[in-house]
Amino acid sequence: ANTMALITSVIDLKNYKKPSIAVLDTGVFNGIIEPIENFEYPVFLLNKKTLNEKNYSLVGFSCEGFDIIRKKVKLSNKLQIGDKLIITHAGAYTFVYKKFHMVEYPPIIKL
Length: 111
Known about the structure:
By secondary structure, the chain is mostly beta strands. Helices cover 0% and strands 38% of the residues.
C-alpha cells in the first residue's frame, strides 16, 4: 500500500560512471530496506521539469556495497546536488534499523 512517500536529497553526483550515480541522504539502512530484496520503488524528481532524461543509479550514503536504492532510473539530465527526489510507496516496513552509521531517520510529516 502507498502509505507514505520519502523525500530525499541528492548529496553527490558521480557522472563519470555509466549510468551516472546519484548519492542520496537516505539508503537501505536508514529509510528503505526493500531494495536489498530487489524491490524497485517509483522515484520522481520533485519540483523540476525537464524534457531530457538520462539513466542514474541511486545509492545511499553509507559506502556499503549493497546500499543501492535503484540500479537504473530515468531522471533529468540536469540533476544537481541539492535536488529533491520523492520515493513513493515507502512506509510500512521501511524503517527497520535505528541509527545505522549514527544517522537519525528522516522525520515523518503528516500532510
